[in-house]
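Listing S7. Sequence submitted for prediction.
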Amino acid sequence: MKNVLMSFLLPLLLIVCSCTKSTNNSTSNTAPTNLTVTANVSTDSSGNVSFIAAATNATSYDFDFGDGGLLNVVTGITTYKYSSSGTYTVNVIAKNASGLIVTKSIQITLIVPQTAIWSDEFNINGVPDPSKWTYDLGTNNGWGNSEQQYYTNRPSNITVQNGVLKITATKESYNGSSYTSARIKSQGLYAFTYGRVEISAKLPSAIGTWPALWMLGSNITNTAWPACGEMDIMEQKGNELNKIYGTVHYPGHSGGGGVGSTLTIANSSTQFHKYTLDWSAVAIKMYVDNVLYLTVPNTNSLPFNQNFFFILNVAMGGTFGGTIDPSFTSDSMEVDYIRVYK
């Protein structure tokens, strides 16, 4: 009797298993459908936005929040905090266990009030405010880039006049160098972590000039470059006038291997333009005149989660500035203001 019962149950079990396997395969081989994405912007001006994504047959959801932030959410429900005002395109990918997907994009607009926490408007004639700025002086063996200038703190190289900071590079024999210029920094006087930086500047145009608005990690005194991190908000080569470079450097991305992008603008040397860094724990973003052209995701493994200080300078020649025009005599970078918001 037992053998008869087993003879009856065994085929039935095989049929059930076969049906179950077929059902699972059918589900995993069916792409998600009917994806919906909704967003609710918080009314408390915090920058928080609640998202709900749902799709038939989906097992997880990938969110690209449009500001460099990325997140995988199994439930499709999450809240994300934006650090600054703007209109963002949010892309969502719903996928199943087999990797089949469906996508959807929505746009959100939000206003995140920001407070000015530090600035220099350069409104007092004379030397740069000594409570905010100090100097790098000398040649320092070309500052690691084979640069040809000698940095001084002389009024002929750096001054504040008529509401602007003026850094002037000049062809002259000085302490063994053929050019002079200036480089100021906020090291030891002001540094911060995360925020929005806006700098209004007019750049030199002569071939061989290398103006820069940039930042270094404050731990450079005990952590060698590039492990300290570097954020170049603006660089320009005089031989590529109007081409603006934005770059970040960190281990594995030093020198010409930095992570960056460029944007070509008009009249960089005849008009003031706004160079912006939007820096958060999620991403590093750079703009010119509010046009975004570089986004670098920030993570805990990168050195961009600590205090950084400012450096403003005009170098001559070097590995980036290139060959200097033999007829060069003098040229300047003017900075109208530098502002930091949180």
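Caption to Listing S7: primary sequence and predicted structure tokens for the chain studied. The helical segments are 2-28, 318-321. Residues 116-341 form a domain with the Jelly Rolls fold (CATH 2.60.120.200).
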